Amino acid sequence: MSFTTPDMAPATPELFLLAAACAVLVADVYVPQRLRMLTYHLAQFSLVIAAGLCLALLPETPQVTFNGTFVADAMGALLKVFILLATYFAFFYSKIYLRDRGLFKGEYFVLGLFAVLGMMVLVSAGSLLTVYLGLELLSLSLYAMVAMNRTSITASEAAMKYFVLGALASGVLLYGMSMIYGATGTLDLAAIRGHVAGLDGRNMVLILGLVFVIVGIAFKLGAVPFHMWVPDVYEGAPTSVTLFIGSAPKIAAFGMLMRLLVDGLPGLHGDWTGMLIILSVLSMGVGNIIAIAQTNLKRMLAYSTIAHVGFLFLGIIAGSEAGYSASMFYIIVYAFMSMGGFAMIVVLGGAESEADRIVDFKGLNDRNPWYAFLMLILMLSMAGVPPFLGFWAKWSVLREVVASGMTWLAVVAVIFSIIGLFYYLRVIRMMYFEKVEQPAPLSVGADMRIMVSANALAILALGVYPSGLLALCVSALAG
Amino acid sequence: MMIDILFYFFATVLVASGLCVITVRNPVHAALFLVLAFFSMACIWLLLEEEFLAIVLVLVYVGAVMVLFLFVVMMLDINIARLRAGFIRYVWVGVGVAFFIVVQLFFVFSAKQSGLVDAVPPARHGADYSNTEALGRILYTDYVYPFEIAAAVLLVAIVAAIALTMRRRPDTKHQRPSEQVAVRREDRIRIVSMPAEKKQ
């Protein structure tokens, strides 16, 4: 038999990260306990190198290798760079959080690196098989990271819920994929696309498979009515893990959505648009309205995630290249906003306590005006108030929805985001207008101060000049 | 014809044992029914000329995984009564939902547009065809990338299992063999010279 070695060059970042994760795993075993921080530095170093490799190997034209199971294109490369950047921030915040609570373990960062590898596999998947395997690699690592703090009962409960529902969602997704395979006879996304294009009439099995695939994706993204796990997991997981789950994996989930629906099943555009509209409206409604009733900031941000996922779908519903790039812009912006929000909980928390209730932010302006200002930026940006970055994200998806002729959907989205404004403003009111008896100053290290400030100020700065990032997203999808 | 009869026989056993897995009271019986389900599935795979997968299913799942599972079930003292609390309350919801899904799937699959009604079954291979060889040809060539990712998934499972279960308890008592070996007589016994006693 003849066998040609596949071209491995396009997958260099993935290959490097796999080798680096294994190396960090082995190094962690031999590092003495007092130098444990070395594991963290090695993990961060590998992320930086992997991001450098992604940028260096930025493909001009889409490259397919490993017999069609791996696709390297501009969208994948851009998503990967932002996944790596988000993980860099998340690892940094995790280090502070875990160190202060005596939970610092090398395995945390090893599992994190494998999760990143899963995300990278996911966003450059060329076949249903790699989509599924990348998703499992990501999910398994996340389940373990949630359960890492074994003494916490809430964390164990959250991990259990996450695992059971995540496994169910994977099963549903796999069932849908098996039906698509049955209807088309191939796992390759490009071949599925060709097969669907050549189909005359409707194929019921294919559409049934699509339903299950969409349910699986909605589960993973946390869209209503498949959102029940999101608040419990966000609240129960250690804040360091919550901020990780809420950032980079969301970008990867967007990549999965694009690969499966836009790359693989564009022929069924009419069918999946209808399903996404239902998910989108429900997510924006339930997310924004139930968030008002929350007293726990992590739960509130979880419901806000659900609402943001509804917005993310809008650009994809628009169904144009500009719509997809608006959604991509949205998810990248969202990942960094939500990470900043959770990082503020890490900032306020002490060595034992979690500052995850909204009342913990009472009088923050008296305690430390700078952090109150950063939180103000993050909350207003999430609410979509101009001139912050979140406004441009919302504006760009809404513009595309209107351009595609669904003005009513844009109106619904605007109404729900005005309702959503209420709960973000409540946090701001807590910080600025509520007084505490004895304002205790915050004790935060200089490194944390720099990173949180960079995170929030980037949102402010990009809000003033959003065109660069937006143009980047447009060019990534123009290929 | 013979193959059809065999298929329906094994499929019936498979569904029945699958139902038993989740309905029998005794967890050991449930695990044994799962073995039966795996075995019937392996037989169905054999009918589809997938010898390799059938044998792997029996060897790995029936032979190794389920035996381990049985050990765990026997060692854990599972309080079934507590697990079953609320079972009756939810069972009707579950049965109702399952019934509707089955009816809907039936309509989809039996529809003319499903493409399944007049689907052509795949051609049967001759006796000299080796399914194992066919899998071996593509597993490390066409599917090498998914194969390696699957390896990474297994590695994550190992790391996660160890990270979640291994803990060092500071209060456990354990031996230090090196010190035991290096021990000298002087460390353990003390020779006390005493004056001899006179016989009474």
Describe this structure in words.
- The complex is a heterodimer of chains A (479) and B (200).
- By secondary structure, chain A is mainly α.
- Chain A has 20 helices and 2 strands.
- Chain A has one domain (9-478).
- In chain A, strands 1-2 form a two-stranded antiparallel ribbon.
- In chain A, a hairpin with a 4-residue loop joins strand 1 (63-65) and strand 2 (70-72).
- Chain A is globular.
- Chain B is mainly alpha-helical.
- The model of chain B has no long low-confidence stretch (mean pLDDT 86).
- The A-B interface holds A 1, 3, 6, 11, 18, 22, 25, 66-67, 69-70, 105, 107, 110-111, 114, 117, 121, 127, 129-130, 133-134, 136-137, 140-141, 143-144, 147-148, 150, 183, 201-205, 208 and B 105, 108-109, 111, 113-116, 137, 141-146, 148-150, 152-153, 155-157, 159-160, 162-164, 167.
Name the average pLDDT of chain A. 91
**What's the number of domains of chain A?**
1
N-C termini distance of chain B = 104 Å
What pattern of helices and strands is seen along the backbone of chain A?
HHEEHHHHHHHHHHHHHHHHHH
